[in-house]
Amino acid sequence: MKQQTLILIKPDGLVKSLTGNILTRMSETKLEIVAAKIARVSPELAQVHYQHLKEKPFYDELLTYLQGQLHDRRKVMAMVYWGDDAIGKVRTLAGATNPEEAEPTSIRGAYGRITSKGVYENVIHASSNEAEAEREIKLWFEPDEIILDAYKTKTVVLDGVKKRVWA
Ligand code: DAT
Ligand code: MG
Fold it and tell me: pTM here?
């Protein structure tokens, strides 16, 4: 089944100069990159991205981490990959959430760490299921930033200019 999935190279991945390694590993999957950009993460974007973890004790640190405040690197690289079983393939390559439990050859197993404060610095984000992938892709990308008709859109007129937005 063709799927789309959101991948973020988190600030620790950027600081450690892992972008090239991660993209090389991702190419093993034979999936197609259909969107990519460097994005600054506002507090609001971080909050909505991790809204399912709001009640967790590590939530505030997690928001700080995603915004790059732990690494003095206030950006992430956001990408959408597309293809057969994209979500499962990328999750397997990413490895378990806890980098100490992740398969050593996975991206998180190879490059992640747990800080002394208990933050899982696990290098990349990967969508966990189709519903989350849709929610996350629509949160991080506009329709015209993706080289694929990912989800339903509608056209609105903003200041006299036509623009496609998520329906
Ligand atoms: P995943 O990123 O594997 O989908 P998740 O959605 O449950 O995992 O959690 C999002 C992020 O939150 C995860 O990448 C790292 C952090 N996190 C999760 N569980 C944690 C824990 N027990 N302690 C510290 N950070 C944690
Ligand atoms: Mg998740």
Answer: 0.97
